């Protein structure tokens, strides 16, 4: 499907009336770039598909809709297997496909670690049409003899680059050995590192490579900023960024579980409403934390990359890279969580002098500009917080939602001046927030000019091949013939 294709409605994609009604009920009006390209290929051509698309581009519907259209409800056998890197993404994909089914009754099993395998086996025995799960749990069920994949018509690898980063490629290859040779393979990935392309060539005899419409790897609606700070000052920098942002609602990414817990503990000590999300958090607690975050009962989520995979939260104002990600691909995944659905967002990265070369390399590979800013000093933070408090007070006065306290206010005014009353209330409610002593000084970091030259720190022993080639044009299809036949 080329960029100039006239396809601009779901009706023109050949979907059934039942599916179109489900899309209308969800409020979907026009297909996204990846949907326009993939749905006709999967529905009307017997080819495999490699789709290159970022988070938030509608790729779940791109593979989910044609699967829904072709699954036979009368056959209570697994006809589609969708592999995801994390349980959160598995749950998200299963929920999205369920909502796309509309009035069609399809049974979907979500299979992941952290939930009773016995309950999952019981559901499989009752018969399901679609299985969505993580490679580890899928492999476990296969080894136990509880997962029959002999009737599969589709295998989907969702966010394949993340599964590669998490070390799941061997599991995926083992799983594919238990699938029929004549199945269809659909692979989706934000980036296309060589191991992913090798996987496609090995298990897809012929495939169409579709690149979602995007001129750069990170959204133009995301303002990308970096601050230069010492490692020891990153927490203080984080607090300042949060405090100068009214209605802050964001994810703070860090490298390890220990970091996530430590940052969360320190934030909670300073009265921020936050929780940590990482691999040691139980599934039950994880779901409670995510529910609270989606409902904005907490506005700061501190997470590791692995734990954050599959989290789909709308209207995030910020993504904070407390620690630089290990790869440019991870940076793309992190930043892609804000600046979505036409709304602007901000991605902030804290870098120490030792990390500057990595940041330069990320900019080069992702073809984005991350601009440098100075952290606000303490006086500026206090000034902005006062402006925020004054603005909130003005909004409350305009709303009139205080008049039931008028008599009480008048009684107090009989005894004290208005200025003293307001000052006392500010002291009572905002004493620590407006106290400059609550903030530590941050030492200024000077970066040497010779550190401005990008150097690839992630790949050893590989010579630079020159500037990175730009992304392929929107939805460009490239036909590939695999070098080896499918494996059973």
From TrEMBL:
Renumbered residue ranges of the record's region Disordered: 456-488
Q: Which domain of life is it from?
A: Bacteria
**PROSITE patterns annotated for this entry?**
DEAD_ATP_HELICASE (PS00039), HELICASE_ATP_BIND_1 (PS51192), HELICASE_CTER (PS51194), Q_MOTIF (PS51195)
List its EC numbers. Answer: 3.6.4.13
Q: Where is the DEAD-box RNA helicase Q domain?
A: 8-36
Q: Which GO molecular function terms does the record list?
A: ATP binding; hydrolase activity; RNA binding; RNA helicase activity
Protein keywords:
ATP-binding, Helicase, Hydrolase, Nucleotide-binding
Span(s) of short sequence motif Q motif: 8-36
The Helicase ATP-binding domain is annotated at 40-210
Concerning InterPro entries, the annotation shows:
DEAD/DEAH_box_helicase_dom, DEAD/DEAH_RhlB, DEAD_box_RNA_helicases, Helicase_ATP-bd, Helicase_C-like, P-loop_NTPase, RNA-helicase_DEAD-box_CS, RNA_helicase_DEAD_Q_motif
EC top class named in words: hydrolase
Composition bias, kind Basic residues: at what positions? Answer: 460-488
CDD domains the record matches: DEADc, SF2_C_DEAD
- Give start and end of each Helicase C-terminal domain: 221-383
> Record's SUPFAM superfamilies?
P-loop containing nucleoside triphosphate hydrolases (SSF52540)
Q: Name the protein family.
A: Belongs to the DEAD box helicase family.
The protein's name is: RNA helicase
Organism from which the protein derives: Desulfurispirillum indicum (strain ATCC BAA-1389 / DSM 22839 / S5)
């Amino acid at each position: 499907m080329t960029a100039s294709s006239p396809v601009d409605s779901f009706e023109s994609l050949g979907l059934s009336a039942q599916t179109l009604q489900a899309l209308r009920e969800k409020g979907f009006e026009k297909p996204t770039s990846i949907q326009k390209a993939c749905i006709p290929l999967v529905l009307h051509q017997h080819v495999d598909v490699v789709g290159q698309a970022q988070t938030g581009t509608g790729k779940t519907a791109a593979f989910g809709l044609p699967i829904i259209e072709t699954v036979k409800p009368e056959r209570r056998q697994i006809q589609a297997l969708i592999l995801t890197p994390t349980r959160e993404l598995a749950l998200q994909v299963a929920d999205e496909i369920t909502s796309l089914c509309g009035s069609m009754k399809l049974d979907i099993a979500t299979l992941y670690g952290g939930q009773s395998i016995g309950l999952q086996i019981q559901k499989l025995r009752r018969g399901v049409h679609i299985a969505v799960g993580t490679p580890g749990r899928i492999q476990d069920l296969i080894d136990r003899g509880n997962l029959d994949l002999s009737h599969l018509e589709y295998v989907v690898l969702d966010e394949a680059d993340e599964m590669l980063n998490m070390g799941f490629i061997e599991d995926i290859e083992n799983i594919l050995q238990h699938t029929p040779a004549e199945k269809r393979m659909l692979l989706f990935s934000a980036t296309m590192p060589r191991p992913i392309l090798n996987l496609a060539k090995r298990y897809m005899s012929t495939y169409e490579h579709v690149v979602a419409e995007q001129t750069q790897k990170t959204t133009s609606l995301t303002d990308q900023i970096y601050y230069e700070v010492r490692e020891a000052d990153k927490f203080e920098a984080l607090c300042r960024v949060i405090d100068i942002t009214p209605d802050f609602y964001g994810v703070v990414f860090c490298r390890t579980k220990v970091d996530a817990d430590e940052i969360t503990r320190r934030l909670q000590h300073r009265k921020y409403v936050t929780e940590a999300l990482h691999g040691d958090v139980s599934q039950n607690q994880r779901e409670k934390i995510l529910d609270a975050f989606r409902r904005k009962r907490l506005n700061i989520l501190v997470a590791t990359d692995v734990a954050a995979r599959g989290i789909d939260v709308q209207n995030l104002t910020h993504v904070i890279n407390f620690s630089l990600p290990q790869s440019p691909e991870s940076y793309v995944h992190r930043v892609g969580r804000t600046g979505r659905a036409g709304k602007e967002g901000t991605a902030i990265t804290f870098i120490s002098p030792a990390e500057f070369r990595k940041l330069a390399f990320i900019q080069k590979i992702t073809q984005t500009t991350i601009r440098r800013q100075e952290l606000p000093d303490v006086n500026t933070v206090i000034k902005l917080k006062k402006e925020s408090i004054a603005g909130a007070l003005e909004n409350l006065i305009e709303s009139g939602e205080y008049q039931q306290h008028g008599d009480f206010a008048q009684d107090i005014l009989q005894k004290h001046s208005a200025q003293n009353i307001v000052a006392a209330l500010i002291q009572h409610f905002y004493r620590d927030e407006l106290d400059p002593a609550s903030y530590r000084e941050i030492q200024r970091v000077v970066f040497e000019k010779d550190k401005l030259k990008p150097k690839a720190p992630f790949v050893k022993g590989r010579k630079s091949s020159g500037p990175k080639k730009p992304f392929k044009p929107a939805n460009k299809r490239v036909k590939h013939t695999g070098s080896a036949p499918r494996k059973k």
